[in-house]
User: Fold this.
Amino acid sequence: MQEKINSILNSFKQEILIVDSLDFVDFKNLEKGIRISRSHLQKLRFLLREDKFETEEQEIKFFKQQKPYIYGRLKFYAKLYNFNLNRPVGTIKSQRNFIDNEIDALQKFYSKNLDFVKYYRNDQTFLDAFYFVRGKDDYNLVPDTSHFYTDSEFSTSHDNSVAKIIAYDLLLTYYSEEIDKLRMKPDYRNNPVKRHFKNLDLGWTANKIDLIELIYALQASGAIRGGKAGIKEMAMACEQIFDLDLGNYYRKFLEIRARKIRPTKFIDRLKGALEKRMEDADE
Assistant:
């Protein structure tokens, strides 16, 4: 059975490689990606009806890695189709706001499911028997009750969650690239405010993730506009002041939250540097 699964996966990878080289602005290309993904997903469904896994480890691998690989891309193409359908064609600002709202929606999923996201990204396995084996659902571990309405022969409590992570990671990359394209538009590059800060040469020389940590700390403290200033606005301001691209700062914040040792290491370093400066001034 494993050879048949690998054959379906290899076929999918070859066909989808062509789709990924095309322009996703064209709806026909996204429709092609959806058709290919659905077709191969259906092949996996039929295979499971005809055959059985030899071991529990094979079943876990299928629902943790193999099915989500295809299912995640199906979700990606479908959501990107809807994104292009609703994307405004107006000003750069309206487009940027639209994309930022889409990123916010993805961020909410990551935040809501942070424990499982960390479990999956860290390649942990101690709950795999509950997450990725059919019929072993632990109601306390099920993140979405809609799972109980799905095909129990072709799904587990968390294979859909893995597919979402794969899809949302792809979407975040695409959205970030689209924002970069907007930044290259003439009316963005010729922004007088951006030119002013660039002339001041206030280059940020620490790591970008350090600046993101600082932005979130300032927002959480209420130091700017009484805490009403949004992360997006603050990040855009810092990008102009320091003439840099922070990239996907929402994703970077997840990395900060996932730190096991000294999650606020840059803030801690600032505190230590300031205390040393004051001690030196007293000498």
